[in-house]
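Forwarding the complex inputs:
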Amino acid sequence: MKKIDVTEAIFEIKKAKGLSWETIAEAVGMSDVWVTSACLGMNSCPEDVADKLVSFLGLPAEAKSVLMEYPTKTWDQAIPQDPLVYRLYEIVGVYGDTLKEVIQEKFGDGIMSAIDFSMEVDKEENPKGDRVILTMNGKFLPYNAW
Amino acid sequence: MKKIDVTEAIFEIKKAKGLSWETIAEAVGMSDVWVTSACLGMNSCPEDVADKLVSFLGLPAEAKSVLMEYPTKTWDQAIPQDPLVYRLYEIVGVYGDTLKEVIQEKFGDGIMSAIDFSMEVDKEENPKGDRVILTMNGKFLPYNAW
Amino acid sequence: MKKIDVTEAIFEIKKAKGLSWETIAEAVGMSDVWVTSACLGMNSCPEDVADKLVSFLGLPAEAKSVLMEYPTKTWDQAIPQDPLVYRLYEIVGVYGDTLKEVIQEKFGDGIMSAIDFSMEVDKEENPKGDRVILTMNGKFLPYNAW
Amino acid sequence: MKKIDVTEAIFEIKKAKGLSWETIAEAVGMSDVWVTSACLGMNSCPEDVADKLVSFLGLPAEAKSVLMEYPTKTWDQAIPQDPLVYRLYEIVGVYGDTLKEVIQEKFGDGIMSAIDFSMEVDKEENPKGDRVILTMNGKFLPYNAW
Amino acid sequence: MKKIDVTEAIFEIKKAKGLSWETIAEAVGMSDVWVTSACLGMNSCPEDVADKLVSFLGLPAEAKSVLMEYPTKTWDQAIPQDPLVYRLYEIVGVYGDTLKEVIQEKFGDGIMSAIDFSMEVDKEENPKGDRVILTMNGKFLPYNAW
Amino acid sequence: MKKIDVTEAIFEIKKAKGLSWETIAEAVGMSDVWVTSACLGMNSCPEDVADKLVSFLGLPAEAKSVLMEYPTKTWDQAIPQDPLVYRLYEIVGVYGDTLKEVIQEKFGDGIMSAIDFSMEVDKEENPKGDRVILTMNGKFLPYNAW
Amino acid sequence: MKKIDVTEAIFEIKKAKGLSWETIAEAVGMSDVWVTSACLGMNSCPEDVADKLVSFLGLPAEAKSVLMEYPTKTWDQAIPQDPLVYRLYEIVGVYGDTLKEVIQEKFGDGIMSAIDFSMEVDKEENPKGDRVILTMNGKFLPYNAW
Amino acid sequence: MKKIDVTEAIFEIKKAKGLSWETIAEAVGMSDVWVTSACLGMNSCPEDVADKLVSFLGLPAEAKSVLMEYPTKTWDQAIPQDPLVYRLYEIVGVYGDTLKEVIQEKFGDGIMSAIDFSMEVDKEENPKGDRVILTMNGKFLPYNAW
Amino acid sequence: MKKIDVTEAIFEIKKAKGLSWETIAEAVGMSDVWVTSACLGMNSCPEDVADKLVSFLGLPAEAKSVLMEYPTKTWDQAIPQDPLVYRLYEIVGVYGDTLKEVIQEKFGDGIMSAIDFSMEVDKEENPKGDRVILTMNGKFLPYNAW
Amino acid sequence: MKKIDVTEAIFEIKKAKGLSWETIAEAVGMSDVWVTSACLGMNSCPEDVADKLVSFLGLPAEAKSVLMEYPTKTWDQAIPQDPLVYRLYEIVGVYGDTLKEVIQEKFGDGIMSAIDFSMEVDKEENPKGDRVILTMNGKFLPYNAW
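Prediction (whole assembly, ten chains):
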């Protein structure tokens, strides 16, 4: 089994049992964003989480070590096409320099880590149309001089 | 004057007067992220904001109408290179499919708007290293069937 | 079954039964453009439409939930090659800035949504050669300042 | 004077006099979309239209022949970035195969011409948000066998 | 059967029977260039031609409707590599602007159609080396003002 | 003076004197396609042609040696955008494999030279719309085995 | 059998029998570079060479006609990556303009043919490290004026 | 002065004095290919060669140190377009794998250096058309295991 | 067996036996970086190393000659995406010109070989977070003048 | 003054005074690699270093604040061309997956930081040819689960 096989098995089980990512996340005690990324093969599971995923979903035993493998993170499209993902890319394009100005003004010369990082998605109900609240939380890493 | 000229004038004044984006934002009563993007030429100012920016910064009068012009939003690098901006691009690459799963589970088939949208940057102090909190807030737009 | 399998099944049935997209569209009570896009896997069907498609075409029962899945919308060619599609791309290239000028003059700073959107194709008979009338209808979304 | 110089002159005069594309279009008796494209240097003017544009806008006499020159139609971005133009590109990507199916079902094997072509933009007022109506009208060109 | 399957079947039969494109073209009463393009899946056959091709070559009956299908015309290499095809690409690169000057001087603002189009290849014997004569014949399409 | 300067000088003189490429070509005793390409800087002139061009057009004396320089032939767009040039590119894409089949059937394994090459443009009047006749004439070069 | 199948068969036999390209070349009476290219499917064999290759290597009879087929010459990487091949690409990049200067000074305006062309690889023993001697031999083709 | 300025000065002097690369090369006692590359800014001159170039050509004294600077070697076109240079690129594409096979058979696992490297161009007179003989000479570098 | 098959076999055995690259490297008496690269198919093994790898890991006998084959070194992504590899690419981008300045100041005009080259990875324990020490060791190759 | 202006001023002074990067580095008490990168505009200087650079080199006072500005780090060539830099890129391509295996085996799932990072270049004298020793030192950053 490779990560892609485990991902496909999870999608089949999820559909057959009518599970949501939220339910799976609660069952293993992690956030829905992170669990989804691990199930999509974009993060490695600590052993206890792998255990819980295998038993909650009824995955084959072999899936445990696959979930724990360190993934090679790649994506197919340098410029994403699906509208939901493209809009995020567009935000990076339109606001990238702005965020550089604002973050470096508040923190100094450095970056927001994408490794020591977490993210969550919330729903804000609104009579004019509900709103997606996407929160990223990354450690600030200052540049080094030597 | 074109938008780029106004942007350069703002950078010069900002440096000469030792202003921060935060100060400028407070002076015109808008958020620092949005004001920075408008000063970088990536958003158009409502008339009252343009008035306040011109008078607070001491820009030439001609700058007002330029700040109000509707920008053509473009960026130079399809794949950004500056590490701060690249990390955001990487997050879209690594977590794009994950966000599609999670957002569409919570909201149905549709996207988070990048137009009816706002964003803010906060600093979370932390003894192990401060953290950047980046919050995006976009209207959910459901797909239409016809 | 995945969306691509349902699409192939539909093409086979459509050819075997000599159906047109127009006939299929009428049978399910939606427009021909939208129905075609859903059959090509580029839009998700509301449950009742999925039901009607399955029964009208005689698709396997499993196809219903597949038709209802939220698609990942991607296309193979950043610059399309088939002449019919390329001409549309060329129109965007040649007239893109023009449309930005005209739409934003009429509506203000914002865009035409491609999500809250519909489109139709009509035939105008003309002795010098029939004409294709392609009508797009998208909600205007004004930019937000915050 | 080159086309780009005439375009810049037109933008300056348009701003100084507070003219809209619609007003300019009415003054020369053509549609606003076409006039805008000609002013942006993407179409050549028939002599009478060039005359009217020069006199209505007060362009230098030399501009007349420049407006009549046959343009080389190019655009900077193979994948457009400005959100208004990108959404049109996205529509071509998402619905390109759909339009090929529907147009060729109605007309036979061939394409919609982007040369023998016109386009208009209308505003449909709507309490839930006004809508952009974009109508393309192109001659159907059947493929030749020989 | 898809177009690619019919193309492969034709290549096998053509090799097995020692046929040339010229012979096939004569058998179906069309030019060799067009017949070859139809056999390669780049043009759709009128019904009578499809009938003749199927019977002359001894293709399976199912091939008839496949030959009549409207093809999606695509090619693998944006910049072709095979030397024979690259030289044609090079001619377009080296002489593209020249042809624009000369054609538009002779015909006005417009293009040579690639749809209402035919092409032939002839051999000119020459003691210094035979010459390829490639003749393209396309309808001139003038641009429209509206 | 560089080739681009001579080209610009020629365009100015050509416009000021109302000359056509055809007239210039006749004056120097070469074809219009080749003369245009030499004036655009894509071919080098033999000395006598350079002499005639300089004297017929009234170019500065220095232009003679520039016209005789061997050009570096490049073009800006790997995939051309102007519709007139794109259609030629599209023909290479759609018919490239076809031409390889037909030319190699008639001549053997080899290519049509783009160096030992000439081309002409003719106008065929036709009540349904005039037609562009584009004729390429290149030496066949057989591959070498060693 | 396609060219790729013949190539794979040759590699298997070559390894099993412990043959070198040099031995194969001698057996068929051609140079090692050309024979290798023909075995890799990048050149077509004259009939007698195809006969000798088939009998010397013990290929299936069907391979003969495949070796004689005219290849479509393509390569996977526009910028090659394997260090041996990249260095050749780098030489073209670094010395391309230099070679244009030197060749055209010696021969006039034209090119070195890559079709009427041969190449050989020799080994020069040298105590400081052996040296690769790569010799290309191509017909000079002068540009044509017409 | 930068390398590009020295190159332009050399081209002007070379044209004004009617010098050839061969003459310049003889004057400084180096090969014509290497001297041309140094004059084009693609190699650095040893001090004595720089001295000779400056005095033979009558360059400004400042040019000496510029000729001795270590160049940054870059080229504009990943895929070259000028036909003379493209043919070399095509040879790398068509024969790259062949050369890897032949060189590594003769020398073992390694590459031909493009740094410890020289190259020359010769003219072979031939009644059927003169031939360009291009000889590359590079040190073989074996891969290291550690 | 091809290199990819041997690589997959090694990964399976490595996982089944719980081996580390370090253990494998020690068993065959080479460094861990080089052994890993050879197992990934990016370097060829000397015969004795191939022997040891086959016997230590229990690979099929056929793997020996495959491990000794000279690899074609290619990679999928011109711009790598996995964060660990991207950071190395970013270092080349950010510090490439810097390294050129510093290396050429210390060594003269030339390069660091990537062929006569070795590399090692060490771990520096550090209470603030362990550090990766990556050391490259390549022969300096001076440019040649001729 | 912008960073590029300061860089050019430094290069001029460095050449005029015959300084090396090593000397400059010693004068300001930092490593030569880092100082070079800061002078090339790829790192920001702490205030005391900026002071020392300005006074040691005799830069205009305005340069101090420019040296302290946070740079936007970009590079022109996604795939570098200068051979010295390309070899580094090639090492990333050839050994990227290897380094991922080895680093993650030693440290766990995570990356080597390119921000909390330093690098040095050393010269190892060797009778067979001196060797470049390039040492990178980056903090290991483990991935976060949440």
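The longest strand of chain H covers residues 110-124.
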